[in-house]
C-alpha cells in the first residue's frame, strides 16, 4: 500500500532535496507531485488527493498555515507535515490547532524525516483499514437492515457486544450520537381491547411511531417485549416531552403504555446504564400503576428508604440463575428476603417494589432467548401476585416459585444448546489453536458463552477439558511439522502456539511418551 505524497515549497532546491534526499519508494510512499505555492497545492489536492502533504511554512501569497487551514476544511483525512526554520518554530506551534501532524526543522535531517513519515504512514494505514471496515459494514446492511440493527441494539443495551464493535457499528448506522449522550425510554404496551397478540400489538405500535419519526431519537423492538427509544445528545432535555407525545399518540390508538425514563448518560457504558435505569423505572409501576410515565428519580425515591438492600450480591445471584446452580439460587432468595426483613421498612408498597426489583433482574436473563418475564409467568398473574403481598413472609413462596420457573427455563435451554456451544467451540479451536493467546476465556467470548458453563459442558461432551484438547491439537500439529519440515524445535513450538520451546518439550513427552529428540531419531 503506497502512501501518496505532495511536496509544497516555493524554493525548487528544497523540493528537489526532499524528493531525492529520501528513498520514499523504499518505505512505502509515492511522491505524486511537487508544487511551488499554496494555491497550486489546493488545486492539485482537489484532483490528485494526496494522503500526506509536506509544506514549507514561509511562502508568498499563501503561507503554510493558511494552506493547512484550507486542507483541513477540504479533507480532514490528509496529514500535513510543516517545514520551518528555527525563527519560525514558536509561530508554527499554532499550526497544531489546524491539524498539522508534525514539524521538520531546516536544514532537514533525513533520519528525522524518515521517523516522522513512517509514524504517519502507520496512522494512515490504520485509518484506511477502519474506513474500509466501516464501509464494508455499510454495504452489508441491505434488505435485512432493520433486523440486523435491531439485533445489534438488543445486544448493545445489555453489553453483549464489545466497545470496539459498538463504536464501529454505531458509526456505520449513523447513530454515533448515542455515545455523546443518551436517555432511554422503555415503553411497555398493553392493548385496551383484549384479543390482540403481543407480536401484532408491538408491530402496530412500531408502525405508528415510524409514520412520524421523532428527530434525534433511535428506536427498536427489544425481544418482542418493549419498545426502546433512545433520545440522543441533541434531544436529552426533551425526553420528558417526547415521552408524553408517545404516550398520547399510543393512547389515541387504543394502546395503554407505561414508559420508564432513565437519566442522561454518556459513552459506551452509559448506553447500558440508561437502559437498566429505564427498566428500574418501569418496575415501579407495580406500585404507582400502569398507563403512565415513570422516571428513574421516582423509582429511586422509593428505593432510597433502604440503602442497605444494595449490599445484595446481584452478580452471584444472576450467575447462579443463568448457570442452573439451584442451591445457590435458593440461598440467594433466602438472603434477599432477610435483607428486606432487616431493613425494617414497614410500608407494603416498598415491600412489593423490592420483590418486583428482584423479579425484574431475574427476568432480564431470559432476554437472550427472546422471552420476557411476563411471557413466561403471565403478565396478569405476575402483577396480581405481587399486589397481593402484605408481609415479608409472603415474599418467600412467591419468589421461590417464580425464580425457579426462570431457573428451569434456563436448564431446559442449556440441555438443548450444550452440543451447539461445544460444536462452535471445537470449530473455533480447530481454526485458532496455533494462536498463543488462545484460552478458555477467548473461546468462551468467541462463542458468546460463559467460561464456567463452557468448561463444564465441553468436558461433558468432549470427554476432556478444553485446555487438554487445545494441547492435544498443538502436539498433533507439532508432530506433523516434525515429519514434513526441517524447522528447528523452537520454530515448531512457536508455530503451534507455544511461547516457550521448553514447555513444548514437556507437553510433547507427556502426550507422545518420548522427547522430541528421541522422536526425531526414530
UniProtKB/TrEMBL annotation:
Record function comment: May play the central regulatory role in sporulation. It may be an element of the effector pathway responsible for the activation of sporulation genes in response to nutritional stress. Spo0A may act in concert with spo0H (a sigma factor) to control the expression of some genes that are critical to the sporulation process.
Classification of source organism: Bacteria, Bacillati, Bacillota, Clostridia, Lachnospirales
Ranges for domain Response regulatory: 4-121
Alphabetical UniProt keywords: Cytoplasm, DNA-binding, Phosphoprotein, Transcription, Transcription regulation, Two-component regulatory system
Keyword Electron transport: no
Residue numbers carrying 4-aspartylphosphate: 56
Biological process per Gene Ontology, one example term: phosphorelay signal transduction system
UniProt-annotated location(s): Cytoplasm
Record InterPro entries: CdaR_GGDEF (IPR041522), CheY-like_superfamily (IPR011006), Homeodomain-like_sf (IPR009057), HptR (IPR051552), HTH_AraC (IPR018060), Sig_transdc_resp-reg_receiver (IPR001789)
Keyword ATP-binding: no
Signal sequence annotation: none
One GO term describing the cellular component: cytoplasm
Domain HTH araC/xylS-type per the UniProt entry, residue ranges: 423-522
Name recorded for this polypeptide: Stage 0 sporulation protein A homolog
GO molecular function: DNA-binding transcription factor activity; sequence-specific DNA binding
Gene3D superfamilies named in the record: 3.40.50.2300, Homeodomain-like
Source organism, top-level taxon: Bacteria
Protein source organism: Lacrimispora celerecrescens
PROSITE patterns: HTH_ARAC_FAMILY_2, RESPONSE_REGULATORY
